[in-house]
């Protein structure tokens, strides 16, 4: 009987010890492995069977792990977001709350871009356990457009800038209709009647007071009945910000040339403050190697019919880029370089060898700092009012007749790859 009781007591003691051992963690007391429970970008699941393809450009990435993250390991060395087309890393804000990571780009992402998101093994939990190398991809919504856009007019039944950065409201919209654009995906375009149509954007000098600059847009002229007072084909002032005191783009009435006239800021060693220069691109264009101006370092020579193919009654994607580092202006049609110049190639001592960027140099009452779509400057300016080709109130002046769409402005240099991708995506 005593033996039985003694055995029973030993069993009870061992059972109690087992319970205590389990309560203290037992075999679970070692470091906990780090693994992902959920990973989302915006409202899309990055753990899904397919890569999300319609992600908002302002979306954050949120990751929940099975254990708390060691905050000092959640850094840009271990958490990386990369643009696929140029392998550029996106600057990120990274925050840690227990087992949750929130990753937010410091600026909005570009549209229509494939991104690669990576977690590297240096990311650890508070038990110093690393994550396995992890990667996911997603694509932002819309057609391709690089980051950093400061103004964007899409003309979807509105003349307002939709980029959200510059974002002024058009203060003058006269005789504009919104009609079908170049394809169904492009939606609508602003249509100008060639006599009175104009859109005016206030305070637009802020758009071009910059060292680096890129402007991209789609344009289609309408030559039907677009004539001057003598019945001859009239030119098209497609857009202007104080004319050549800021920026203008025009197409000749014979569709044998187009040009940007832009005001450039000089450096401190110059004798003046600024000056205008034309990006002149005519039929059979020349460069310095075949009789052209010494500063023109490239020109694609087009025949009259080839030039008409771009400028007369056809949709064309036009891009102009100025790089302050290279002191170079470049003109592209449909993603292809048409002409370029280099201010470093101007004659020694010329003020234009000192150019540092674009500027607005207009003075009232001649011109006002309003960007005009459809004319060379806004109606508030008085310059050229009495010229048969230059007065807004003259219906047969060089009003723009045709359509404009998807105007984008950047205060940075778009690369040739970016320009080509924009054209291919929007075409």
What does this structure look like?
- The chain has 427 residues and is mainly beta.
- The protein has helices at residues 2-23, 205-208, 304-311, 416-426, and strands at 36-41, 44-45, 61-65, 79-83, 92-97, 100-105, 114-119, 134-139, 149-153, 172-174, 177-180, 188-193, 198-201, 213-221, 236-241, 247-251, 257-265, 274-282, 296-299, 316-323, 328-333, 336-342, 357-358, 371-373, 401-410.
- It contains four helices and 25 strands.
- The strands form four sheets. Strands 9, 11, 12, 14, 19, 20, 21, 22 and 25 form a nine-stranded antiparallel sheet that branches.
Question: Nutshell version of this structure?
Answer:
By secondary structure, this protein is mainly β. The chain has helices spanning about 1-25, 205-210, 305-310, 415-425, and strands spanning about 35-40, 45, 60-65, 80-85, 90-95, 100-105, 115-120, 135-140, 150-155, 170-175, 175-180, 190-195, 200, 215-220, 235-240, 245-250, 255-265, 275-280, 295-300, 315-325, 330-335, 335-340, 355-360, 370-375, 400-410. It has 4 helices and 25 strands.
């Amino acid at each position: 009987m005593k033996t039985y009781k003694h055995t029973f007591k030993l069993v009870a003691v061992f059972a109690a010890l087992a319970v205590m051992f389990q309560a203290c963690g037992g075999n679970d007391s070692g470091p906990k492995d780090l693994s992902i429970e959920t990973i989302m970008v915006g409202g899309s699941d990055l753990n899904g069977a397919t890569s999300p393809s319609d992600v908002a450009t302002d979306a954050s990435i949120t990751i929940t792990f099975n254990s708390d993250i060691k905050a000092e390991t959640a850094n840009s060395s271990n958490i990386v977001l990369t643009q696929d087309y140029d392998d550029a890393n996106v600057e990120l804000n990274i925050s840690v709350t227990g087992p949750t990571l929130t990753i937010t780009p410091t600026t909005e992402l570009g549209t229509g871009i494939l991104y690669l998101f990576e977690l590297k093994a240096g990311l650890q939990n508070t038990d110093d356990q690393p994550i396995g190398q992890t990667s996911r991809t997603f694509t932002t919504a819309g057609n391709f457009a690089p980051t950093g856009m400061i103004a964007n007019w899409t003309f979807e039944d509105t003349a307002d800038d939709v980029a959200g950065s510059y974002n002024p409201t058009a203060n003058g919209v006269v005789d504009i209709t919104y009609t079908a654009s170049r394809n169904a995906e492009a939606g609508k375009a602003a249509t100008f009647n060639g006599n009175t149509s104009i859109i005016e954007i206030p305070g637009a000098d802020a758009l071009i007071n910059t060292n680096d600059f890129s402007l991209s847009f789609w344009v289609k002229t309408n030559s039907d009945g677009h004539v001057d007072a003598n019945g001859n084909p009239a030119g098209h002032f497609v857009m202007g910000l104080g004319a050549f005191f800021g920026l203008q783009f025009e197409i000749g009435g014979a569709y044998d040339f187009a040009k940007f006239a832009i005001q450039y800021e000089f450096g401190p060693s110059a004798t003046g403050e600024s000056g205008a220069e034309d990006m002149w691109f005519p039929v059979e264009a020349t460069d310095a190697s075949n009789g052209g101006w010494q500063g023109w370092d490239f020109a694609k020579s087009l025949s009259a019919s080839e030039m008409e193919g771009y400028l007369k009654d056809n949709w064309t994607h036009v891009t102009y880029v100025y790089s302050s580092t290279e002191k170079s202006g470049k003109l592209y049609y449909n993603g292809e370089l048409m002409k370029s110049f280099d201010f470093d190639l101007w004659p020694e001592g010329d003020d234009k060898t000192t150019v540092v960027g674009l500027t607005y140099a207009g003075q009232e009452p001649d011109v006002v700092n309003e960007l005009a779509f459809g004319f060379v400057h806004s109606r508030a300016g008085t310059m050229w009012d009495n010229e048969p080709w230059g007065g807004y109130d003259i219906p047969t002046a060089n009003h723009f007749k045709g359509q404009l769409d998807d105007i984008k402005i950047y205060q940075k240099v778009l690369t040739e790859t970016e320009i080509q991708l924009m054209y291919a995506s929007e075409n």
